[in-house]
Design a protein that fits this description.
The protein is an alpha+beta fold. The protein has 11 helices and 38 strands. The relative contact order is 0.10.
């Protein structure tokens, strides 16, 4: 009996499992928590107050040099406010290992037979040391002040370790030297004030040294939409100019903490009358009577000035300002270009006008490296070396599918062809490689055509890099023989056919395509942020998104726009892609688009109706949840709305972080993502609904229906076979139950009959005995 009950339960579970698979699936993905989203300042970044730099601070692992010959180089920058005052000292922690093989002469001892470690600093030999003992050891090397002057074209320091254990070529032995990343370099220096000349912008905000660069953008406590737009424009420009390597954050004037201001560069954005901190700055052009007065200038001139920080002179303050909102916007757009021309002083720039229409740049489809000013390049360093070439893709153009790079090269015949060759990259993506051979060595010039995938290039500046790997046939080849080389001839040619591409945003996109199609316009001129009033946290999130968009669009200028949620003009609604960020109950525009959202909001609590989710959860109003939703604009067929919303502030922050945090952005898909901290649940509500429901056509004089607080019931289009299948399943369950109950009844009846028969038989036997 118990076994049959188990069978019944298993049958029920099986049928219920089949029924549950009929509902639309949603994907849930979770990543490991990340303490701080990319870009935001995790904490105050302290000034470098020590002379010592460790190799691990250069993101350097232990360096292993393997004999008989090996070489490794490190390239790094020192902080801009360091003025070196004396010889530097290298403290190297080494592990030396020498192995003698079985056929080595037994009379040979390790002492004096290992080899030498040669150390170069900026191409000067600063030390050569015999390696005559196994195990751990420490070397101290003095680097004279004259050797600390950079010789590289990029002005960076270069440290090279060379292992020369040529004796291993005479004796069967193997030498290995490990330079541990606990090794250090000490640079005696004095701190100087950074250069504030705008001609070197974005320096010194961004210095690309061993220490992280950070900047705090400060806006008025009650910024106008234009002032907020200007802050986002500056962030987009800095994101592009620094490759997102400058940590950015946003605050308001009254919330600037002296500690944070002292440990970060500060960018003040706003009108003269909105920034009371201006009075604390020693400006080359201070305001007079509350306004900037420029000789022969105009009230709407943008003003950009850079001075040393009053909180810490080793930091700077960049002022992006003007007398009017239009002037501040103009100044911010000029900053986003990265090109600022000095005015009456090196640290002031006055912007008269900004050309907002992007001029089309003509470019030849075919040109040689020599046409672009690049001469022949000889790569002869053992190991890896490289050369970089720049090319430009105009905005609103894409690369044709037949683009290619014709590499013209030559190589030495003294190379190990199995370990030597060339790799070609575009913007860090490998697109091809070349293997050397006796045939290529016998020719002075070899030609190879390498296709350039259009997906590897971006609008604006691009880099093509040729990386060489050169290894000798015999590891015992003397390095200074100069037998290892490859030529990159200036006859090498780029074929870059450019195709005009009209932006058609009416096509189907999903959140996985972000930041497309916003970045199709490299100037971001077709993108507008729609933000909540008096909500610094959502503005901070918008700043990170703007920096990310600036980096990805790679335009020569940023022209994005920003509006408050209750002041979005009709011209912006009909012509721009909108990024709506904030708490859903506090944004009036959310009520206007509510009926078109993939997950509309039922009530003013900010909890959305999650369509197409496999499981619907009950979320308390005081529990934060974030939503990222994508929909075609209700006001235009050719633009989109992307809404990063939350019921509470925490939920809105989670939603916005999914658009700029790499770990979360890669998980986005469909047209709806529900964000709970690091958890991302996605679905596509368009799968089972007619396309027309998600592509509303704007009718003259008819706008979206205001949000009434009530949502009409959602009709779910189920497949026609679900109900018959459900009926058949229930019928089978009924038959199984009847069959089981009948078997139980029959068994009980047979048992009863056998009992009665046995009882009657016993009675008969008893009666027979009594009669006898």
């Amino acid at each position: 009996m118990k076994l049959r009950i188990v069978y019944i339960l298993l049958a029920l579970l099986f049928v219920l499992g089949m029924l549950s698979s009929l509902f639309t699936q949603a994907s849930a993905q979770t990543v490991s928590p990340t303490p701080t989203p990319t870009g935001m300042l995790p904490s105050a970044t302290p000034l470098a107050n020590t002379n010592t730099i460790y190799l691990f601070q250069l993101s350097q692992n232990d360096i292993q040099l393997t004999g008989p010959y090996d070489l490794t180089s490190l390239v790094f920058d020192l902080p801009a406010d360091w003025k070196l005052t004396g010889s530097a000292e290298l403290n190297l922690n080494l592990t030396i290992a020498l192995s003698l093989f079985a056929d080595a002469p037994t009379t040979l001892q390790f002492s004096g037979t290992g080899g030498n470690l040669i150390v170069e600093f900026n191409r000067q030999v600063v030390g050569s040391f015999p390696l005559n003992q196994n195990g751990e050891t420490t070397l101290q090397i003095l680097v004279p002040l004259e050797a600390l002057k950079p010789v590289r074209s990029d002005g960076r320091q270069e440290l090279v370790f060379i292992l020369d254990s040529g004796f291993s070529c005479l004796v069967n032995q193997q030498m290995t030297v490990v330079v541990h990343n606990s090794s250090s370099m000490t640079f005696p220096h004095e701190t100087i004030l950074p250069d504030t000349s705008l001609a070197r912008f974005p320096f010194p905000l961004y210095q690309a040294t061993i220490y992280p660069d950070s900047a705090l953008i400060a806006i008025p406590d009650q910024p106008t939409a234009e002032e907020l737009q200007s802050a986002l424009t500056v962030a987009a420009g800095l994101g592009r100019l620094t490759g997102l390597n400058l940590l950015l954050d946003l605050t308001s004037i009254s919330k600037i903490s002296p500690e944070v201001a002292a440990n970060n560069h500060v960018v003040l954005v706003g009108k003269t009358s909105s920034l009371p901190l201006i009075d604390q700055l020693e400006l080359p052009l201070p305001p007079e009577g509350g306004k900037f007065q420029t000789p022969g200038g105009d009230e709407n001139d943008g003003i950009v000035q850079m001075v040393h920080s009053p909180w810490t002179p080793q930091r700077v303050v960049l002022l992006v300002s003007g007398n009017t909102d239009a002037a501040v916007v103009k100044a911010a757009q000029a900053v986003s270009t990265g090109v600022l021309r000095p005015n009456t002083a090196p640290n002031i720039s006055v912007i008269q006008q900004v050309q907002t229409s992007i001029q089309e740049l003509s470019q030849q489809s075919d040109f040689t490296l020599l046409d672009r000013g690049y001469n022949n390049t000889l790569l002869e360093r053992r190991g890896t070396d490289s050369v970089t070439y720049n090319f430009y893709i105009p905005p609103d153009r894409i690369l044709g599918a037949d683009a290619y790079f014709e590499l013209v090269y030559g190589n030495s015949a003294l190379l190990d062809y199995g370990r030597s060759g060339l790799v070609i990259q575009v913007n860090g993506q490998p697109i091809g490689s070349v293997r050397f051979s006796d045939t290529s060595a016998s020719r002075t010039m070899n030609r190879v055509q390498i296709n350039i995938p259009p997906s590897t290039v971006v609008a604006g500046a691009n880099q093509l890099e040729v990386i060489s790997s050169l290894q000798p046939i015999d590891n015992c080849s003397v390095p200074n023989l100069r037998g290892m080389w490859t030529n990159i001839w200036s006859d090498s040619r780029l074929h870059l056919p450019l195709i005009p591409t009209p932006i058609e945003t009416a096509q189907v996109y999903d959140l996985g395509d972000f930041p497309a199609p916003l970045t199709y316009d490299s100037s971001l001129n077709t993108t507008a942020f729609v933000l909540q009033r008096d909500d610094l946290e959502s503005w901070r999130s918008a700043l990170q998104i703007a920096a990310y968009l600036g980096d990805r669009s790679n335009g020569s200028i940023s022209l994005l726009q920003a509006y408050y949620g209750d002041e979005v003009p009709d011209s912006a609604r009909s012509a721009l892609n909108l990024l709506v960020i904030g708490m859903a109950p506090e944004l009036p525009i959310v009520a206007e688009i509510n009926e078109f959202l993939p997950a509309p909001f039922e009530t003013a609590s900010g909890i959305a109706t999650e369509r197409n989710m496999q499981v619907t959860f009950r979320i308390p109003p005081d529990s934060p949840v974030g939503y990222v939703e994508l929909l075609p604009s209700p006001w235009s067929k050719n633009t989109l709305v992307i809404a990063a919303l939350g019921n509470l502030q925490q939920g809105a922050t989670w939603a916005a972080s999914a658009l700029y945090s790499p770990s979360l952005r890669s998980l986005l898909a469909g047209d709806l993502a529900v964000i709970n901290d690091q958890q991302v649940i996605t679905t596509d509500t368009r799968v089972d609904l007619p396309e027309a429901a998600f592509l509303p056509t704007a009718q003259p004089g008819l706008g979206p229906t205001p949000f009434s607080g009530e949502i009409p019931p959602v009709t779910i289009n189920r497949p026609t076979w679900i109900l018959p299948a459900l009926g058949v399943s229930l019928g089978l369950i009924t038959l199984i139950l009847l069959f089981v109950f009948y078997n139980v009844y029959a068994q009980n009846r047979r048992r009863s009959e056998r009992s009665n028969y046995k009882a009657q038989e016993l009675k008969n036997k008893k009666t027979t005995k009594e009669n006898e």
